[in-house]
Design goal:
The structure is a single chain. By secondary structure, the chain is α/β, with parallel strands linked by helices. It has one domain: 3-Layer(aba) Sandwich (Rossmann fold). Helices cover 40% and strands 16% of the residues. The chain has a 7-stranded parallel β-sheet, sandwiched between helices. It has a two-stranded parallel sheet with strand order 6-13. The chain has a two-stranded parallel ribbon with strand order 8-10. Helix 1 packs across helix 6, helix 3 runs parallel beside helix 4 and helix 7 packs across helix 11.
Length: 329
Amino acid sequence: MRALITGATGLIGGRLADQLLEDGAELVVVGRDVARLAARFPSARVRAVGWDGARLPPEALEGVDTIFHLAGEPVADGRWTDARKARIRASRVDSTRSIVAALRSAPRLADGARVLVNGSAVGIYGARGDEPLTEASAPCADIGASGDFLAEVCLAWEAEARAAEELGVRVVCVRTGVVLSRDGGALATMLPLFRTGLGGRLGDGKQWIPWLHLDDSVGLFLHAAREASVTGPLNAVAPAPVTNATFTRALGKALHRPALLPAPAFALRAALGEMSGVVLASQRVLPEVALHTGYAFRHAKLEEALAYELDGGAQRAEGAAAAPQARRA
């Protein structure tokens, strides 16, 4: 495989790139800071290309057979001001449009099947209570100026990606849920509070959390690229979603700490503003396409996933530090 990756310095993109290198792939990594990319991936099989998100040089796609587009402004790093919302949207929608434009004018693409594995999110479904949501479920209907911002972004994001189908490219939109990793994302944010015994449910705790371990997030991106029968939306979530209250209890148990201090919904809305909808929304999302196309989850149960990440994470980090650098050459 010769793959192009955007967002290769992010939580999912970085692990995905490392896995592809271990599998023998050649990579083109694109981003704003070429020096940072080159330092992160000091391999002869990696080429770093500058990209501001607005125009991807078509020559970056020369020889590429697979594109993984994971770049995007972080959603949960602060209140959603108008400026931040504009950056969140542009970093996803406009950047995807630029990738498709580069595909149209690319000088030479690899022979054989081509695929664009594009990022997306379960936010496309909106808050749906206890309704089971599969890839066949309709997106959120409440979008627009006063509706669900993330759902609107995801809809536009996926529409830009699907434009590549006109070029004979297979397109998969990976609708990612809450990715669990001690190295970043929601779990890393929660750990300090829960370790002090100050963690607790959010709101009434009845909202469903579509969680996923980082290993399976990477696994599903690879599955999307390699499994020709996968096309269109792919829910990147574990097969057993849990409520926020259940998640809270499981995390407290894994850390051997109480998790008894709830954060009331009104307090979250006051502190986070519009972004509070992300943590209070109930989304009972199921990975129907992944299961029907033969993907085997490494971490299907929450308790096991948390134990693996919290107990095994330190050992994995030590092993990675001790590993010879030659494996990246």
